[in-house]
Amino acid sequence: MTAIANRYDFVLLFDCENGNPNGDPDAGNMPRIDPETNFGLVSDVSLKRKVRNYVEFAHAGEEGRHIYVQDGAILNDKHRQAYKALRPGDAKVEKDAKLNPKDDGEAKKLNEFMCRNFFDVRTFGAVMSTGVNCGQVRGPVQIAFAQSIEPIVPQEISITRMAATNEAEKKQKAEGDDSAARTDNRTMGRKHIVPYGLYRAHGFVSAPLASHPTKGTGFSDSDLDLLFEAMNNMFEHDRSAARGEMATRKLIVFRHASALGNAQAHDLFARVKTYRNYLGEHHEIGDPGLDNAPPARSFADYAITIDRDGLPSGIEIIEKV
Hints:
The protein is α+β, with helices and mostly antiparallel strands. The chain has two domains: about 10-150 and about 195-265 and about 310-320, no CATH class; about 155-190, no CATH class. About 25% of the residues lie in helices and about 30% in strands. Strands 1, 4, 7, 8, 9, 10, 11 and 15 form an eight-stranded antiparallel β-sheet that branches. A three-stranded antiparallel β-sheet has the order 13-12-14, with no helix packed on it. It has a two-stranded antiparallel sheet with strand order 2-3.
């Protein structure tokens, strides 16, 4: 594989309807929000997890497309695979709880093994110095936190369960209820949802971190295509009771003609604007004319524009979605 030779920046827009796009475990699994503005948030870790899941589903078992961070995986076992490849027949590799490279040359080969075999190491990087030491890799692809276009108002929905968990729970319910009208067992629960939210995330792909002779991961053009494929389809295979309706709406890529880039990322991102579509007119987000408008409840309530005028030399805009 030949590493990418061009820098890329991209804007990802996705939405969530009547679901929880990213629960906060420190807040009772409520949707993440910025407490000062009430804008919704989705962590970079959550988005990377969905990319990993898609690649695992779509390319399971394919050489070079294994996933390092899997649900329930023991990371040291994966590090040990690299040592087994480099030290065949070494009894210590099979049983020692701690392993370290013998020298800088072996350390580099261990890194290269992990990058060559695991898509997510090659893409996002990894810290692999946990006992069975394979070093650290800085990935060429980084994704920032996603933020909703407008403030969200999370809702807490009460739900009930008819069945009992065990015989003791069923007996407790029967003994504690004097009602003649209702003898079934119901346990109360809560779900948190966002009625509707359109979220925007920014991403960055560094050619030097992919192609550097000593630090590069070897992230290639085919890896880049797979990354964008995953971002387009990742929500299609992430359905759950909490995330029933999420979808990628736009994926806008800025391709630079050089490895170091031809423009600053924030200037390129500013060319992608989101407007509120109300009564057939496009309004800036926060426009006082929207004060009496109903809240957005679908993607049709927004309009996405791309400013292509005066595009810096060496920049190409590619709409993947």
